[in-house]
Amino acid sequence: MYLTLTQTDPNVKQSLSQTEELQEDNVVQTLNFTIAAINITKDIVPIDLAKGILGTITNILNIVQSAIENKSDFLEIANKCDAITRVLARATDGATNDDLRGTLGDALSELNVSVNRIYSEVASMKELKWWQRLFSVMIDRDQISGWEKDLDRTLVLFNTEAITGTAIRMKELALGLNDNTDVSVNALKFRPTAPPSRPSMFYGRNALMAELTNLVLNDEHIALIGPGGTGKSSLSKAILNEPPITEKFGDRRFFVTYDGLDPSTMTFETFMTHLAEALGAVVAGSETMHQISVFLRSASALVVLDNAEAFEEASGSPGLQKIPPAITEIANIPGVILILMSRNRRNVPDVAWLTKDVPPLDLNSAQAVFFRIYGGASHSHAEEEIKCLLEALEFHPLSITILANAAQQNNWSPAMLLKRWNDRRSKLLDCGKGKLQSLSFTMQLSLSSPSIQDLGENGFRALTVIAFLPQGLNDDLARDLLPSIPQVDTICDVLCTQSFVYRQGGFVKMLAPIRHYVRDSLPPPDLICLRDIRALYYGAVKRCSLQRDNLADVIISDHLNIEHMVVFDLTCVPNGTEEACVMCWKFLRCLRTHLPRPTILTPLIFDIIEDSSTWKLKAHCLFSLGSLCNSLAQITGSMQAFEAAEALCISAGNHEEMAQCVVRRADNYRSQGHFTQSQNVLENLRRSDSWEGLTNSIQATIWFLLDLARMHTFTTSADELFTKSMNDRNWGIRSKIWHWHAKLYHGGDIAQVKMHLEDLLQCTSAGNYYENQHALRVLAEVAYREGRLSESMDILSTIVELVEGKDPQNVFWITIWRAVIASDQGNYDLARELIHKSSGPIESLTLSNARSFLHITYNAGQVELAAGQYHRAESYFASTIEGCDMQGDVRIKTFSLRGLGEVAFAQGNLNLAAQRFAETQSLCTETGVPPRNLYSCAPFCARQERFEGWMLFLEGQLPFANDRVM
What we know:
Elements: H1 10-44, H2 48-67, H3 75-91, H4 103-126, H5 130-139, H6 141-158, H7 160-178, H8 183-186, E1 189-190, H9 206-217, E2 221-225, H10 232-240, H11 243-249, E3 253-257, H12 268-278, E4 281-282, H13 288-297, E5 301-306, H14 309-312, H15 323-331, E6 336-342, E7 353-357, H16 363-373, H17 379-392, H18 397-410, H19 414-424, H20 439-447, H21 450-454, H22 456-468, E8 473-474, H23 478-481, H24 488-497, E9 502-504, E10 507-509, H25 512-521, H26 527-543, H27 550-557, H28 559-572, H29 577-594, H30 602-606, H31 615-631, H32 635-652, H33 655-671, H34 675-687, H35 696-713, H36 732-745, H37 750-763, H38 769-785, H39 789-803, H40 808-824, H41 828-838, H42 849-866, H43 870-887, H44 890-906, H45 910-927, H46 949-954
Parallel strand pairs: 2-6, 2-7, 3-5, 5-6
Antiparallel strand pairs: 1-4, 8-10, 9-10
Helix pairs in contact: 1-2, 1-3, 2-3, 2-4, 3-6, 3-7, 4-6, 16-17, 16-18, 17-19, 22-24, 22-25, 26-27, 28-29, 29-31, 31-32, 32-33, 33-34, 33-35, 34-35, 36-37, 36-38, 37-38, 38-39, 39-40, 40-41, 40-42, 41-42, 42-43, 42-44, 43-44, 44-45
């Protein structure tokens, strides 16, 4: 380490100097006070050995004060010396030299050795020459830390507070004897009992165990909170048997259980009796608390209070006010540590608890518990089925244990167990009596607690609603969702205090086993609650727009609850199909706009009974479902929904909506590269009887999409493309841009294309960023085709500035194209960086990433091929093909197969290259794209001209290739 000296402003130097002088004065003052206090104490302690220890400490501090330069490093030593002084004063109060034969003498001897060793080392430094002393002190700060730890170690061995308690108790005993008091009346006879052993099945708590053990060793009081069955008792028993805990507390580890006690019958005497019994004491006399306190002061102790809710719930009853002060008194005894386990968060307020929630198990630990009990199948063969079951239980330890035992005792296979669970749910969790064999027993204990009973009917109404809603109750919306339940916020607070529910992510939730118990054992939410929930949720769905506002926030935050409400109305509400269908398609539209994700409504929509009253409603639901699937790149599901909706529209005579379904199907075909199929679907509609009945707007849409397909198949002259939709108000400017775009793709005059596009760019309004970016994109492609790569890159950068923050999908595409240009420029590192960056803007599009993934991996392969990294390119192309097979994207698959062919050709594997090119040619036929025009409409997907294997194959000039393209 080096110090750098620089010139400093004189005022700064003066300020630093004044600060250092002030710190030095504070240190000197602290040392003076400490030395003075030690000298006073030394004169009054009655034990000579203690006087000697204090004298040695004084000598240490005097040397520090007079001869050591870095006095501030000794402040902690000074504080520890002050602590020793106060402890010795208390520990030796009233003692004589005769008392040194016991624990007090041993502790003083150890402390004497420690302080003498420190004094010897400090004094030896005083004898060094000035420069040696300075050097030594400056580099031996670790040595000072070592002295601090030595004093800490000695103080732990000394157990000063226990010695103090012993001395006090000796004085009290002496006074009692002198007063002829009956000692047997005021003392407890203690017979220490062994703590419970570590549970034989204890999994998945290693990190929590280590944390809690460390807290206990650091003298922290801990409150372990959780609902019934989460393993709080097992956790505390395991802590009691941890080696560091047994080493520190020895046989003074006590487990006090209040299990099975009714809070309504709890008394202070019952509380004290259980405590005394756990301490191994035989109670005699009336001053039990004082006697227990004296016993606990005799040495360090760890006291575990299990099932504390029994007295915490009772502490509000008359005559029980003594319990919290008693726990506080025990917690304040030096050296005594408390661990409290409770379902109740209303713990004794005057204790500095460190509250820890006991979480469910993780998947691996849950499986370990299950298969430790269940031997009906091997872990590997049953893993998936059991995993589903454990997830349904949310890894609740008691529920897992009960189900595993039930499966083992009944010899159920994993499949049978899963079927039993689906049929019976919480009833399957009642396999016996007592809380270790019955979830309902545990739940009934919680429900019968005075705090829950005091909530009355409204408390149980709130419980049923929280269990009904899969996300739980939105904390911020609770009053608006349940206006018929007064003070619902307070009710939720009480339920949370009792660990019946918990708060997470802004919602009041239930663990799955508790939720199933409530659903199975209590009536469903009443009609008033359901009406109020519908009013808020359905109101948000009806008024939700494309804008991200407060209504959209409700849809996003409570989407699973709203979906569940729609499911409930579709399946359980008589004569409610019409409203449920309306809410269904409107909710799906909201999802597509604000939170695209798969939905559980799919099978219910297909199952809606079809008749003249539901044709239109069901068609709306199917159309919204198809649109949602399409946004998620779930093309198969989208096609099925649109086809079904199309048939219903025909039955209902709604030709306009039927045409919309056809348009969506055709667009899906085109997006996957099935241009011929897209063209055929639209041509069939154009030739059908329905065509004349369609509005001009929908006809223009059909012409536009038809020309997009024909542009790729080269079945129509570019002069004719997009002319039929040019005069439409919605498609006009866009069609004109695409007309010249098609001219470029079909080999038209580039100068003319550029001129018209620049004119169109001037005509588009500044706010119409779609047309602007489209025209700029074509100009970028023009520059790219002409080899002006830097200009093309600059134009694409301009588009990013135009659409960033508005259209993340376009930012994605442009980033990909910029990577292609960087690769063509030979800047492969930049190209790779841009490929990696391209996934950033689309992260918010969730599952639509599936489609984007294909383009990312394909273009990554394209970059690696250009860079000569053939193995990496091959890997990327193979991954893309696999993804295309899953997504049904034949176009990108065609590009990737050609890429594999070029890899094989570059590596000299001509037969494999010929095979890949033949596969590529076959897919061209399937898509409807002429092989020689494979990249005509995708210039940024094309290979550099130096990769000539494909063209050689098409021309029949590929060596050793037998097939020739005609």
